[in-house]
Amino acid sequence: MLEKFFLHQKQYSLKIRGESLASRIEALNELEKAIEAHRSEIIDALKKDFQKPEAETLLSEIYPVLKEIKFTKKHLAQWTKAKKVHTPLTLFGSKATSSPRLAACVC
Q1: How many domains does the chain have?
Q2: Does 52 fall in a domain?
Q3: Domain for residue 96, yes or no?
Q4: Alpha-carbon distance 50 to 104, whole Å?
Q5: Which phi and psi angles does 85 have, rounded to 5°?
Q6: What's the pLDDT at 100?
Q7: What string of DSSP letters covers 21-67?
Q8: Selection from 28, 4, 29 nearest residue 16 by Cα
Q9: What values do phi and psi take at 87, rounded to 5?
């Protein structure tokens, strides 16, 4: 069961690498809206399951995630930008760039 879950996650990871910057930003916006829309439900669930106080939930669960979403949206364009990389001498006269969308491997 766990192996099947990880395989699904790996396939999804490979799929989203080809998505545009705009679609990635939109997905982050949707996540942000969902967290805000269900804030009270998240607080209630953590109180019920773990007896976690509202203030602690806000400070340790909700606010950090919202801050990370904001940070990611701000830097995503830079992170996904192709970068010039060293070209071996055997390929003298050519240029090479890295493609961050394909560089990360979820193995």
Answers
A1: 1
A2: yes
A3: no
A4: 35
A5: -125, 160
A6: 62
A7: HHHHHHHHHHHHHHHHHTHHHHHHHHHHHH---HHHHIIIIIHHHHH
A8: 28
A9: -105, 130
- pLDDT top residue among 54 and 88: 54
Q: What pTM, to 2 d.p., does this model score?
A: 0.73
For the CA atoms of the chain, what is the radius of gyration?
Answer: 20
Residue 68 carries which DSSP code? H
Alpha-carbon distance of 58 to 39, in angstroms, equals 9
Answer yes or no: is 29 within a domain: yes
Quote the domain boundaries for residue 65. 20-81
Question: The dihedral of CA 82, 22, 5, 39: what is its sign?
Answer: positive
Tracing tokens 């998505």 back to the chain, one arrives at 19
Looking at the domain assignment, is residue 105 inside a domain?
Answer: no
